[in-house]
Amino acid sequence: MENLFKKIQELQDEACRLKEEEKERQKGYSASSPQPSSTWNLTTDRQQHSSRTLPPWDGEWLRAFRKDAGPWNGEKLVVLSLFDGIGGIWAALTRLGIPFTGYSSEVSIPALEVLKAKYPEVHHVGDVRKVERMTVTEKVDLVVGGFPCQDLSCMGKREGLHGQRSKLFFDLLHVLKIFNPSWFLVENVASMTWMDRDEISKYLKLQPIELDSIELAPSKRRRLYWTNIPHPARLPRVKNHPSTFVQSCLLDGIALEEKTGIILSNNSYKSNSCQMELVLENGTSELRYLSHVELERIMGYPSNHTSLCIDEAENNSNPMISNVSRYVQTSNTYHKKRGKICGVGGPTRFCTPPASTLGEPLKDSVRWALLGNTFTVPVIAYLVSPLLKSSVRVLAQPVTISDPVKESECSVMDPDDVWALYNEHERPNWYALILRRSGDRFSRCGRPDKKNPLRIEMQYLEITQPYLEGEEDSWNMLRGTGLFELRQQIDCQISWVTFSHRVTSVVKVQDKFFIYPGQDEVWAVCSRKAWSNFFVYVVESSIDISRLQSGRPGNEGFNARCHLLIKTTEHETYRKTDTTLEFTDISLFCFRAPYVFKQQANMLRLEVGAKGRKVRNIESGIRRSKRKRKDTPEALRDDVNEEGEGYIANVFQGTDRVEQKGRAATTDIYDVGYGPQINASIDEESTQQHLADPETIIISDDDD
Length: 704
Hints:
By secondary structure, the chain is an alpha+beta fold. The active site is at residue 149. Belongs to the class I-like SAM-binding methyltransferase superfamily. C5-methyltransferase family.
């Protein structure tokens, strides 16, 4: 026990030393940081408050970014923030020293009051669904929006992008279409299914960048960001620096973990399975949870950013604000931790309480929800930082959204789309023309908690005979480019697992389709001598459409300039090099690999093979429902359908193989196309087979 207390004392001394170092660094930062332009009207009180309470890890890398960009010499940015929350974008722009004219769309009452108190200069435009062109009369430079994630997250019901809450994305799309901003930044969870991610990319016309806030802050938060702002060239290497540890954000105590868990809207410290890491109180052996002020600092906000006072009577008299008591502590609530009564002292509207009386009139759960639904400020500052450079700003082009933006008219897969499917060697170079699709996300059944079985009718594309030359296996070819023709038979798929991506670089030549590597795509290039392949990033490519009708290989006028990708030590992560390769032989390109950017401009995470579509034992899906109903064949079938894209299968082997490797096997007009499936529906015989053989598995798109 004596050794334990000795160790605790050493940790306390170390914590005090770190605090003193951070105080000294903050003094140096405050003295040397460039001040905003005089035309940027911030109140003196706010400037003093911000400089006094900035989180300690704001300093070095942000200062280096500002120094590299030089002083701001342009007009103020006109920024429209949708789903604004508590103002993460305003905190990031303030941190960067970028002057702005702000417009905010937010409907949450507590969030609105935080915004009005902390950023009084920001204009409010109301519900995103009611925003029209004349709502903001100025030319909008930047639109930012982190739309609701409840239907996309692995912790939700997975209704998808067209769910009741996440479909607000299409209102965001509408705003982009009517304002044509120079830049946009769209954020959501990285645990969404690949179909939802691809549908978002389809309309925004670019691939997202994946970034975990643990790289720049003390909290884990893996997110996808779609932005046409050039990605930063380098990620600051501060993940393991003490300034990004939880300890640097504590008011007192000793952090037992260097980083904390994911801050959610409902993992309140009182009781939840997603509780935060514990803190050891100074001078005692007692453990406590992180406080709201410490969470604010962890997320990049000043201390007490969400601490407000409210006059309940005054706000309840406002017809636009009802039942304020849902959000605030009542006047007789005794705050045990601070030993004082909250809300006493006369009628006051929402305001920042003085430093001497840090009352918390907002309910703990409300403050926690505000922080759980907001941006991580240093991450947003990192992604927006390229706008510090005038050389980036002068290249701005208005964003053009030409596709329909009405939710009912939008879909990840449309008739007449060409999609790539995985072949027997898990190379996505089988192609099919989509005819019809139903079930799953395309047509809802009567019950909101159920999905109809997925059914996709399509015609495979088969490569023309001249392009087969040199292929040893005419069914599972190495090449994934060339001239293809429609197969007459109609095939059917009942799972998303067999699909890889929508083909965008395709030209229709009469009744044939020519597929080639397109700009900003990643392709595997095959080496027939080594019987292996390597990956390249296509910078630019071109073909001569007038020469495609000849149907002769080598006569396409193909030319491509690519950057070589080399694999890093991280799983499926590649680095884009400066090595440039020129190609004129299109037959070398094997298949296209879907990807997302990883952390910075030259890092990419590739999705190679169907293993990224998630394979797991079906029993885990059944176990969740055992508390509700019996495991009858009918109930099991419901469980499988609940998985959305789930179906019983022996993956890539065994019973799904029919004559000619899965395509032309039946006399019916519909043929069960290749893909790990037994039948075009889940029948009772298959269900009974699973009950007898637990090794049968289910494939689903649920994320970890």
